[in-house]
Amino acid sequence: MTDAEASDAPEVLQPGELAGVPDGFQRLWTPHRMAYIQAGADAMRADCPFCAAPRKSDADGLIVRRGKSCYVLLNLFPYNSGHMLVCPYRHVATYDLATVEETREMAELTQTAMRVLRSVSRCDGFNIGMNQGAVAGAGVDEHLHQHIVPRWASDANFFPIIARTKALPQLLGDVRETISRAWPV
């Protein structure tokens, strides 16, 4: 083998030499997602996260505001910093099964959440929506919840498209504290 051929040959690694070897992958460690993955859909049906959250302290449940029939909490697996959910306390699957009181308070809490997010994060817009049923993309399909996702003109970049990774610049506890403090009385 000539020197030129040797320099073009791929490096052969031995077992045990792989850890820490640079490769083409960038890794974003998200160990908090393991609880979600390991629990699976059956565990969420057995102990609905949206029924469990109000039984916890606001900090532990990521709750931003408690209303009479609905409450607002941060999404544990957010698309963007400040991604909130508005949920009725009552375990009801779809919007058409919600009471007039629940839909009214969901709308009011959504409007207030938008105002608060705009003031504390200076976002440029929002994605607001509900996925009704598993076939429509609901991760928790048996408990109604509305997403409020703040958006910035600069929040779309190559990361989610190329690397299927979303960088979140703030910790959930810090976001919850900021939003809770800014929520009007």
Q: How would the blueprint of this fold be written?
A:
Blueprint lengths: L2 H6 L24 H14 L2 H4 L5 H4 L1 E4 L3 E5 L9 E5 L11 H22 L3 E5 L16 E6 L6 H6 L8 H11 L3
Order of H and E elements: HHHHEEEHEEHH
Instruction: Let me know the number of strands.
Output: 5
Instruction: Give the CA-CA distance, first to last residue.
Output: 78 Å
Question: What is the fourth-level CATH superfamily?
Answer: HIT-like
Contiguous uncertain segments of 5+ residues: none
Task: Note the beta-strand portion.
Answer: 5-15%
As a percent range, the share of helical residues equals 25-40%
General description of the model:
The chain is an alpha+beta fold and 185 residues long. 36% of the residues lie in helices and 14% in strands. The protein has helices spanning 3-8, 33-46, 49-52, 58-61, 100-121, 158-163, 172-182, and strands spanning 63-66, 70-74, 84-88, 125-129, 146-151. Strands 1-2-3-5-4 form a five-stranded antiparallel beta sheet. A hairpin with a 3-residue loop joins strand 1 (63-66) and strand 2. The longest helix is centred in the middle third of the chain and has 22 residues, at 100-121. The mean pLDDT is 83.
Keywords:
185 residues, alpha+beta, HIT family, subunit A, five-stranded antiparallel sheet
Short characterization:
The chain is of the alpha+beta class. The protein is built from 7 helices and 5 strands.
